[in-house]
Amino acid sequence: MIEDGALARLVRASADRTAAAESESCDLCAAPVPDEHAHLYDTGQQEVRCVCRPCSVLFARGGAGDGHYRLVPRRRVRLPRVDTDVLGVPVGLVFFVPRADGTVTAEGPSPAGAMRWEVDAAAWQQLAAACPQLAGVEPEVEALLVNTVHGLDHHWIVPIDDCYRMVAVVRREWRGLSGGGRIWPALERFFEDLTERS
Question: Domain of life here (predicted)?
C-alpha cells in the first residue's frame, strides 16, 4: 500500500480545488472573504460584487473609483405601510431603485431573474413626500422592497444586495408555471429573517 501515491495526491488536490471554488473571494483583489462581507455595486455592469474589508475601505467615500463602484450600505429600515399604488406597479413583490440620473426602476423577481421597468419619477417624488424616509434612499445601492403577496405587509429600505438575494430565492425555489409549493414559504422566511440595522 502506497500512503502518499499519485492517487492520494490527486484526491487531495481535487479536494483543495473544490474547497477553493466554494469559498468566495474579493472581486477586486481575489483575497478570500468571510461569509459576512461587504459588497460593491458596479454601476457599469449593474451587478453586485463581493469585496474584502481592505478593498471596501477604498470605496467608503462617495467619489472613489469615479463612481464606477459604489459601496453597498448595510442599513435596513422597516417602514410602516407605504402606499405604492401611485407608482402604477401592479405586482405585490417588487423593489424600487432610485437611480443617479433621477429615474426610478421597479424590479420584480421571476424564474428568469429580475424583470425591470421604469417608474414615473414624479410619482416617486410624490411617494417620497408622503414617506420622508424614502428621500434618503441612496441611489443605485438602496431600494424600497415591498411584499404584499398573500396578505403580507412588508415595506423596507434595504441594501440592493438584499434585493438580489430575494431574486435568487425566487429563481432557486420556483417550480412549474405558478411557482409551486416551495416558493411562498421560502419568501416568507426571507422576509422573516430581515432585521433592522443601521
Answer: Bacteria
Distance of CA 183 to the CA centre of its chain: 18
C-alpha cell read off for 78: 422597516
pLDDT tens readout for residues 31-62: 999 999 999 999 888 899 999 999 999 988 76
CA distance 139 to 104: 9
How do 113-119 and 104-110 pair as beta strands?
A: antiparallel
State the pTM of this model. 0.83
Helix (H, G, I), strand (E, B) or coil at 192: helix
Question: What span, in angstroms and rounded, lies between the C-alpha atoms of 89 and 106?
Answer: 8
Cβ neighbors of 181 (< 8 A, separation 6 or more) are 175
Q: Which three cell numbers stand for residue 39?
A: 459588497
